Amino acid sequence: MTTTPPTRTPPTRTPPTSSGAAAGGETGVPVGGGVSVPAAGVAGVLVGDAAGVLSVGRARVFVLGVRHHGPGSARAVRAELERLRPDAILIEGPPEADSLIPLAPDLEPPVALLAHVPGAPARAAFWPFAGFSPEWQAILYGTSAGVPVRFCDLPAGHALADDRDDREMSGMRADPIGSLAAAAGYDDPERWWEDVVEHRGDTVSGPPHQTPWFEVIAEAMAAVREGYEPDERESRREAYMRKTIRAALKQGHTRIAVICGAWHVPALTGTLPSATADNAVLRGLPKVKAELTWVPWTYGRLASWSGYGAGITSPGWYHHLFTAPDRPIERWLAEAAAVLRDEGLAVSSAHVIESVRLADSLAALRGRPLAGLGEVTEAARAVLCEGDDLAVELIQRRLVVGDRLGHVSDGTPMVPLQRDLRDQQRRLKLKPEALDREIDLDLRKPLDLDRSHLLHRLGLLGVGWGTPGQARGKGTFRETWTLRWRPEHDLALIEHAALGTTVVAAAAQRAGDLAGEESAALAELTSLVEQCLLADLPQALPGVLAALSAKAALDTDVTHLMAALPAMVRAHRYGDVRGTSADGLAVIVRSMLDRICVGLPVAVTGLDDDAAAGVLKHVDAVHAAVALLSEPQAGTSAALAEGSGAAQRGRWMATLRGISDRPDLHGLIEGRLTRILLDAGELDDAGDRMSRAMSRGHNPARAAAWVEGFLAGGGLLLVHDPRLLGLVDGWLTGLPGDQFTDVLPLLRRTFGSFAAPERRAIGERLRSSERDQERGEQDVDERRAAAAAATVLAIIGRAGIGEEST
Predict the structure, then answer these.
(1) Which one, out of 187, 402, 406, 680, has a CA that is 20 to 30 A from the CA of 640?
(2) Can you give the pLDDT at residue 403?
(3) Are strands 53-56 and 47-48 parallel, antiparallel or unpaired?
(4) Where are the domains of the chain?
(5) pTM for this predicted structure
């Protein structure tokens, strides 16, 4: 079903006059109480009609209702402004940004106005604009034609003073587009809007004033709002819009164009409240100090609810409709084919031709004036992608949404922190992008090392431009990052602007502030030390180390110390590899390890299964860290490094040896400590220990836990040590049926963690063992084995074969 706006003849409007006009006096407008003002002045009562035009003497105010981010609306607004030639333009938006409007021609959309309250980063809002936004086209027209352009919505200082969520404050209880679509028989508001606006000839390729398009929109919104009572928030917004119109009239403007959401048109035309009534609505509004600037935006974020609450799900598609008014379907599908070819898919021109035909056929069958996004997507899925959903998702991500990231000029107001980051991005050749981009850094190269420092410093400031990943190569001199710029990063930079004028100064100050917090945990401080070394912040490191030393001296929980030690060791090694100084770290590491060695024997006493598993993770982490300490460090003599590392390693191994001999240990911990000592060459009686652990005097569950801890390092030990394999095998085969059932979950978890080749090798060892060979020499009782064989064959899907062979 196709619905188009009805055509009507614009009504003839006769402006009201005062009695003085007949006598040759100046035309005036009555404002009540027998008082009139000049026609060019501002009236207490504005006279208008439902067609979107206000009349004040010789002055006219044209209210153009639009859909935010609508390419059809954008094209119609631009054409209507060319026809009307207004002397002032008012746009829905925060008036504090009026001084930023002249910068618009130098910006590359999508961009957004960012309003924030200094010192309160949670109080912020964005007003996004795309190239196909009607407000943006109005700004470009006004700046190019020399026409004053102003914003007319409620000031951001009032809006940000309200603690309620923007959705809660919007006041729009019903979706006007959805209401109109339902009245026209459409179940999809987006499809209705495309049919009646985006795909109409007079808004796509011809002058929209041939059909009174804005008058039709005004009448439709008046019908939707009939009987509607706006809430307090919406009433204030519309009262301020009317106040701004009166102010423009008072300044002497006689042809004013107002570009606002179509929903507000009825509130700005027809019978309007008086200036006194509007002032009463605005009286006593809470207000905060708000600062505004332009920031880059992305098409991916245009679907977000922000600013005036506009959001679209297909910004890339709308961008295409706005920039390709002729043959949009053919151009779109050709671009989709190019995207697929870039990914190595075989898509020819014949595919494009057939997909265009299919899209047009679908549109004709559905009664649509032009194929919409639904039709071109279905055509691309069937022809270009050959039913492959992954290829369709690629088109969705690249074209329907798009990866466009806006750009603001150097003349845009920025805090020093933003400018410093922009300078460093240029110097380091790191361009902000909207899509994920992976980079590999070799820290031995000065450029890559500087990039790493910058990304780590930004991480300290809460600017997650880069997400660290797992380096592909071995060694600590490589890093992998995934970069993706988000508009919120500018807000984070503004939030931390008071910390310093440069990224390095702000990051150092931030590290010091975090270290000085009383609530900072020991593990957080050790992580902070690591971040300072990774970010190359030597000026912040002494304060952080002092806070860490004080916290470690007071912390009596050995598990906290064990959780913190690995990060300290990594920090020490990273600092050495990167060439940064890590003075003081070795002393703190040695002190923490000493306290761990003293407290660990007490910490492993009387543990249940969950607590034992938790302690065991810390033991493994500390053991790995001690192994790193035993390696020679850059810039240190080999003898000194080996002596220091050997001393710390010896102290740690002696602690583990002393604990492993205790009879009251949990089986999981005892088994794991035995394995650690065996791998380190500290034991020569591992077999005897295993034999004792799995003797009949111990509970089978404890024995299974011991085996789990012992074999946690891998199953190759059983492959290469026949005695240990025999002990485990003998213990298992000797368990009664009920006990075997009880320990089976633990054993399954243990052996299930082995790699498939390890499990296969263990099985081969058992098969070829002496016990199996002896059993293989015995005669087989086929009668007794027949039932078991039939069951096995049934399980593997070969039932019946056993009976025939038998």
Answers:
(1) 680
(2) 80
(3) antiparallel
(4) 42-301, 327-401, 416-499, 689-768, 781-806
(5) 0.66
